[in-house]
Amino acid sequence: MIYQYDGSYEGFLCCVYESYINKEFPIAFCGDEECFSLYPVRCVITISDHARRVQRGLEKMSIPGAQILRRVFLTCMEDKEQRMYAFARKLFSQGGTFLKNQSDEVYHPLAAAIRHMNGEVEKLKGFVRFSDYGGVLGAEIEPKNRVLPLLRGYFCNRCANEAFFIYDRTHRDLLLYANGRSRIMRVDQLQLDLPGEEEVHYRELWKRFYETIAIKERLNPRCQDIRMPKRYRGTMTEFLPTDHERHRNAIPPAAGAAFPGSAAPGGIPAPAKPR
Amino acid sequence: MDLLEKLTILSDAAKYDAACTSSGVRRGYQPGMIGNTSSSLMGCCHSFSADGRCITLLKVLMTNCCVYDCKYCVNRRSNDTRRAAFSPRELAELTIGFYRRNYIEGLFLSSGVLRNPDYTTEQMIRSLEILRHDYCFNGYIHAKAIPGTSPELVTRLGLLADRLSVNVELPSEAGLQTLAPDKSKAAILRPMGQIRDEVVQSKAELVKYKHAPSFAPAGQSTQLIVGATGDSDRHILHLTESLYQKYRLKRVFYSAYVPVVENSLLPALDTKPPLLREHRLYQADWLLRFYGFRAEELLTAEQPDFNPLIDPKCNWAIGHLEQFPVEIMSADYETLLRVPGIGPIGAKRIISARRVSHLRFEDLSRLGVVLKRAQFFITCGGRMRSGLRYSASTLVRQLESIQRGELPPDGTAVQLSLFDSAG
Q1: Are A109 and A171 in a shared domain?
Q2: What's residue B407's pLDDT?
Q3: What domain range is A200 assigned to?
Q4: What sign results for the dihedral spanned by CA atoms B71, B73, B77, B82?
Q5: Are B38 and B25 in contact (CB under 8 A)?
Q6: What whole-number distance in Å separates Cα of residue B246 and Cα of residue B301?
Q7: How far is A261 from chain B (nearest CA, A)?
Q8: Is B52 on the interface with A (CB under 8 A)?
Q9: Nearest CB to B47 within list A139, A160, A238
């Protein structure tokens, strides 16, 4: 039996619910996209009541276990739902004792996926590069895992007095923050404004600093690649031309200046006066 | 001179300072201020330069003009180089501009000695005051305390910065006398002692009064240059240990000497920096801080330098085979920590996992143990790993060949040639 669900965490919990009600063992899960298979497909409708019941059940067996499950849902682990399902079943049948053993064969893949995601979050805390678009700070990232919910608290604290957005190109999620309130929403495409003069100047300064600070006699590209894998560099100022938006938007240089207006998406009012 | 040019000169002059961390203090957002320092306890790396080193702070000198003439230093008086200085406001604006864009975690401010140590420190204080008070900067600040500065000024500097550092640079008094005639050991250690005492006092006051000013809450650090003088690893490691114990330093940084100036007292200009030696010292430093080792265990008078081909922990284990193998299912935390290939995280996971399950060798690698190194030193359920062949005499070579792949590709060649010509 293949379970089709809406791709949300609540939807997944409903799959667990259905499998217990129908006494069956789903062999695969698929999201909203059409699923072609010779196996019978069960379409699971997300019902908050069912999801809540499963959530409460999980918490009753083990609170850390329930937290792990929720967190793992954000990762990019292969066969995520199957592994999560196996984990939930084990939790329901045995309780949370097996969580003490990270080498447990059901728990280990989940623990490894969470570690991978935590590593990405830790790196992105440093690698996110904001640009000042008329007083609003904006950044883009290309993570493998759905890290925005985990970066939210960190950046809302660090940039508490700013208005900012971070766009996740991989998952097309947008984190917005202004006036002490934040929101994550799906945005299919994001068109960035061209950087102002001051922004370009800061980019130049940063690029120069980045080049100067390296000691030529100690060049070590291998070490650099291990600590800052190349996949992060596509959104980092020091590896981009100072006017990378122009290349992205494919605007011929002369026409660039003809695009005024705020880059702030989703109706964040730009602050009256940039500090 | 425009800002871009100044930044180039003054970051180029500051880059030989290894200390670049934003760790040791958590201070959340405060209303009306810019930024925080609440990143993870390890600090936050914002980029990695082409030499593989972490960039976390805007590392610059206030000025690279200097009245001193330390032979090893690019900024020494007699060196013909371009000089520049930041104005305090310029520097504050640059820091804020970088910080807002998440380029950096804060500012690392050092300086050449302009006129005299007191005058220089006053300039630095002026900059930090503008940054903290006028621009309401709440991020991380690391400032250099210049040896010879009067205690009142060091106090004022410490109230503005999160971490202070006084660089020892040369590991011995003899080295100082020949290479840095304007400095003395006493002048370096005096501010270190003062900083230690004020940090302790400030912590005590903070317990009593919530709003007591905090003095260098992230403590102090220092840097030692490796390879400019003939000091042995053993000497450096003992010095490190006593700095940790006597002066309660948070970190000691090592900087492989990069020959920047021609001088008959220094290694020739074409000498490659001893990067592998620096790496081994850092590994040993970790053993001192997190693994419960003492300096005298790691190196002896008979073996005053590390074997460049083996990490210090393996090196120690080979010399103490009588303490091995260790039984995974029963050894205590401290014993597990001493096994090569097992770190603090691995040891904790083992202790947690063995309560609920019998561990096999396959499980250990899932727990984060580096089995290719650990296998020689452990038993699991009373048995060694099956198919493992070694003897006390072949062990060194086996470990060397395992670690060969981990060495930096060109660094090895450098080290070997240096090793050969050591005599």
Answers
A1: no
A2: 66
A3: 128-266
A4: positive
A5: no
A6: 23
A7: 21
A8: yes
A9: A238
User: Where a domain ends, among A63, A98, A117?
Assistant: A117
pLDDT in tens, A231-275: 999 999 999 998 888 877 765 544 444 344 444 444 444 444 433
B47:A236 CB<8 A: yes
Question: Is residue A162 a part of any domain in this protein?
Answer: yes
Decide if pLDDT at B199 tops 80: yes
B54 lies within 8 A of chain A by CB: yes
Cβ–Cβ pairs < 8 A, chains A and B: 159
Tens digit of each residue's pLDDT (9 = 90 or more) over B99-119: 999 999 999 999 999 999 999
Cα Rg for chain A, rounded, in angstroms? 23
Task: Tell me what the pLDDT averaged over chain B comes to.
Answer: 89
Out of A157, A162, A237, the one facing B100 most closely (by C-beta) is: A162
Neighbours of A8 (CB within 10 A): 14
Domains of chain B: 3-267 (3.20.20), 312-406 (no CATH)
Inter-chain contact B48–A228, Cβ cutoff 8 Å? Answer: yes
Interface mutation vs chain A, best among B2, B26, B100, most A CBs within 10 Å: B100
> Which residues contact residue A181 at a Cβ distance below 8 angstroms, ignoring those fewer than 6 apart?
none
d(CA A69, CA A63): 10
**pTM listed for this prediction:** 0.88
pLDDT-derived band at B37 (thresholds 50, 70, 90) equals confident
